[in-house]
Automatic annotation (TrEMBL), chains A, B:
This is TetR family transcriptional regulator. SUPFAM superfamilies: Homeodomain-like. Residues 30-49 bind DNA. It holds the Pfam family TetR_C_14. Keywords: DNA-binding, Transcription, Transcription regulation. Coiled coil: none annotated. Gene3D superfamilies: Homeodomain-like, Tetracycline Repressor, domain 2.
Amino acid sequence: MTSATRTLRARRLEAAALELFTVRGFDAVTVDDLAAAGGVGRRTFFRYFPTKLDVVLGQLDDALAGLVSALAAVPDTVDPTSAARRAFLQVNAYSPDDEPVLRRRLTLIETVPEVGARASVRYEGWERALAADAAARWGCAPGELRPQVFARVVVAAMRGAFTVWLAAPDAELEPLVVAAFDDLARGFG
Amino acid sequence: MTSATRTLRARRLEAAALELFTVRGFDAVTVDDLAAAGGVGRRTFFRYFPTKLDVVLGQLDDALAGLVSALAAVPDTVDPTSAARRAFLQVNAYSPDDEPVLRRRLTLIETVPEVGARASVRYEGWERALAADAAARWGCAPGELRPQVFARVVVAAMRGAFTVWLAAPDAELEPLVVAAFDDLARGFG
DNA sequence: CGCTAACTGGCACTCGGTGCCATTCACACT
DNA sequence: AGTGTGAATGGCACCGAGTGCCAGTTAGCG
């Protein structure tokens, strides 16, 4: 099978799943339903997605790769917060067409606790990347307190911006992310 | 059954579970094992803990109650960050006897992704409490960006401190929490 | 056309979690 | 002490997620 066919099927599976989840509720949809909706066997479904939860999170890993390269592209002289801000704005940019899907995804992440939990696990990769980047810019070890706290805090801020964005139907994501980073840079003291 | 007996059993179950988890690994221990180790039936185990995951997290909800009351005890005039710092120091205080158990818990939280995910879900209560408190102090709505970001960021900072503490066998937790809050208050800009 | 390697999907199994229900146990009241 | 009542227990059957195994199919290539 060509990899094109593969990603095509994955997309179809994903779209069908998102539809079913939002209509019937996450828990009321079984994996058999998802497989049937995507026209594949149950066993095959699990070859496309490791978990029922992961169907919701789809593109998150690609985004991680994007984050890493975006961070690498920012000159060393820029401070970690600004670097992270730039990278995040780049990674979180979405075309207007994708907004409804993005809102669905994030709604599920916020609504279904298990999915949110799974998202947290996925974001750990982001945190590692951010800690490594910040450590390099500050000239310290990634395991030290400052980069560790920084990495977690940055992801948390982004997710906070997501939450607010979701609650406001007409809001733009970008200014919220910018504002969240401003708060972070300024400090809460 | 008296509630004393109940919590006693819960403790025994918890202790046995923590032991088994650290020795054999989380996944290699079944709920039947846990129930047997605690001298109860499998069905009863699930009356004490909603989930296998939750055995690890035990006291976290009590801590939430402690956080809420600690926050309420801080005068209105204190800014949110300082208030949160005070509350966290109070809630995270542990007697030296408890340290080994605490380390085990946190190790499992960091090591086993599912457990970490579950912890994130549990911390959402903390975030709601923090957002409400911060909003009250700032005189804004809890749903606004600033309190939302603040709440998540504070919990993230604390968890960052936990991570660093875990990695350093001889470290004290308290100064790490203080340092994390200092970073937060000062800002990362 | 035929070979090989990868993809598929059915089957059976394990394990976490839940509803149901008969039994047992703790406690209070007489 | 004796008894009744309500809660706690734990066995049983069931569901759904996830996995190993394997036979059948399909796609790509010489």
